[in-house]
Amino acid sequence: MQKKVLAVVMGGGRGTRLYPLTMERCKPAVPLAGKYRLVDIPISNCINSEINRIFLLTQFHTASLHRHTQSTYHFDPFGGGFVDILSAEQTEKNANWYQGTADAVRRNLQHFRGFPHDLVLILSGDQLYRMDFRKIIEDHIASNADVTLAAIPFPVSKVEGLGLMKVNDDLSINQFVEKPKDPAVIRGLTLSDKLEATLHSESGEKHCLASMGIYVFNRQVLTEALDNNMTDFGKEVIPSLLGQKRLFAHIFEGYWEDIGTVKAFFDANIALSDPLPPFNFFDPSAPIYTQDRYLPASKLNKCEIDHVCIGDGSIITDSTLKRCVLGIRSFVGEGTKLTEVVMMGADYYETPEQQLDNASKGIFNIGVGCNCEIEHTIIDKNARIGNNVKLSPKGKPDGDYAHGIIIRDGVLVVPKGVIVPSGTAV
After folding, report:
1. pLDDT per residue as tens digits for the range 43-90
2. Contact (CB, 8 A) for 202 and 208
3. pTM
4. 223's torsion region: left (phi>0), alpha (psi -120 to 50) or beta?
5. DSSP output for 37-51
6. Rounded Cα distance, 221 and 385, in Å
């Protein structure tokens, strides 16, 4: 497997739908589940699938992503493994940014040629799922496919905004429609009764197969498919190959979430606090890897805790937390109540001298102060929230509010590094 496959992880575009979480970082670098980054998901899935030659294509706000990747993924010199970062670069032939997913891969084909491989596995860097890629590759080879698309069954009522495919009973693809809206078109893309019977679903509703943005290409087919000016796989390249190449679907029925919006990100994180979350980080057979930071254990003093995940190195004092996910180095002061809060923590600890200097300038310490009430909120890294602050998006429209606070998709967001003065109420 290691010698047969190269993996390519797409570093994402501007991430406008995930703004303000992407104000200073790209989507794959957004913190997740208290201690991870989104990019850890596809890279960990590759490692667990015995694929250890991985290219990461990046472009916007890359510093945080590069720093995390370089400090996390180190392979021994005998296995030939690597995570190689390929940023958009100017050349004699092209001085532009990547124009889309297909354009990004096309402009890096020259870097792939130096490594022996038969197949290229193309992945998104901003999805939450656990997949054994060996299975899709086995299906790809068994069906003698030129291209295989990972597909997830969705009930007809939930397919809005997804790329859908029509397949035959042997899972060969005969139609692909990017984000259809016409109900008649969607009905025409539903699974046959034979395939419907194979699904592990009890909804009673007909299903369509939605593209997960995961592709397996034969090496030569990928080169031929990109020998043009097409910029996007889903909108252009895949539809252009229909009838020209052998396209097959690989059905995946596990948990999969496209972290494309603030609401999707918030919901996916909060769900991790459930007793049996839809995505299980506790699976020892397929661990999710991330940076080893050597932080101390978290410390909780006189707290009321109800369904909460807490990252390493945090200090929570005499507070009430319900359905929360707290990141590394999170600080919460006395008498504070957090309900449905995703707090990303901090990049560093402040020394006592820095804290004294901050106090003399009227600047709060990193974290949440005392006697605050915060609900349905994302607190990004290094934010400073004073005492007696009340934050909630309930009853308020999306938009910009005082002190840099933003409400997006019905979720209140305190962006990275923002200072919220004591007594603030939003």
Report:
1. 999 999 999 999 999 888 888 899 999 999 999 888 889 999 998 765
2. no
3. 0.94
4. alpha
5. ETTHHHHHHHHHTT-
6. 53
Among 416, 159, 414, 129, smallest CA distance to 268 is for 129
| Residue 191 DSSP one-character state | P
Dihedral angle computed from the Cα positions of residues 304, 307, 313 and 314, in that order, rounded to the nearest 10 degrees = -40
**In 3-state terms, what secondary structure has residue 413?**
strand
The domains of the chain, with CATH numbers, are 5-271 (3.90.550.10), 299-420 (2.160.10.10)
Half-sphere exposure of 423 (CA within 13 A, CB side): 0
Output the CA–CA distances (angstroms, integers) from residue 289 to 35, 71, 281, 283, 407, in the order listed: 10, 12, 10, 12, 31
Query: Which residues are 159's β-sheet partners?
Result: none
* Residue recorded with tokens 């978290």: 298
- Cβ(39)–Cβ(28) under 8 Å? yes
- CB of 35 closer than 8 Å to CB of 312: yes
The token pair at 209 is 């197969």
Q: Do the strands 119-124 and 5-10 form a parallel or antiparallel pair, or are they unpaired?
A: parallel
Residue 292 φ/ψ, nearest 5 degrees: -90, 110
Residue 21: pLDDT above 90?
yes
**Quick one: tokens of 383?**
């934010």
